[in-house]
Amino acid sequence: METFVLPARQRKKLGPLIQQLKEVGFTRLVYPRRNLTVEKWQDKDSMDYQIQLGKNEIQLKYSADAKNKRQRFLEVMPVFLNVLNLAQPFYDMQPSPLFKVFLDFMQGIRSHSGKDTLDLATELDEVKIRQADLRKKYDALVRSSEENARILLECERRRDELYKRVGNLEGLSDEALKQALFEWIKVHGGTLEPLEFARSYSIPTTRVEEGIRLLQQEGYIKRRSHV
Length: 227
What we know:
By secondary structure, the chain is an alpha+beta fold. Helix content is 60%, strand content 16%. It folds into three domains: 2-94, TATA-Binding Protein (2-Layer Sandwich), CATH 3.30.310; 117-171; 172-217. The chain contains six helices and six strands. The protein has a six-stranded antiparallel beta sheet with strand order 2-3-4-5-1-6. Strand 3 (36-43) and strand 4 form a beta hairpin. The longest helix has 75 residues, at 96-170.
């Protein structure tokens, strides 16, 4: 629980102040004799803050921990200052303690802000470095993808050409094949090397063997036996 005490001498009774404070939105107001206590509760078991207006001082108490100390100060102090403003006609106040509190708070904010700014600048530099590195990797990946796409397209083009070529060769009629084989044999003195013929006509050797078999079956050629 944080506590702040402001020296203030009460000059007159606080009765007229009660109605004004009721409009501020406090959960509870207590007025025993010449003292006035106003409270704000989060729930029935947890008090948010309390302001006590006594004969010689005005005291503020509010809940806070190390993690939210600055935040709670910013939340509670405007309410406290509003109450002091309303209570000013009833008190002779000495505001110097307020100056010190706010000065300490501002120095803490400045120090913390400076550290945060340095941390953020460092983090920003690191992010920029990572961004540049990721950009290089991305550009390299794009170039690699473009190269891979080019290679793939080239492979697909060659594949299509081969498919077309094979289709044309396999589509060669038996008659055309037999005629080509027969002419080859005549030109080459009755000899035929299937592999050489296949290379010359760009056809599979299996197709050449099929043509030779057809010529044999029809009696156009005979195989020689090698002695």
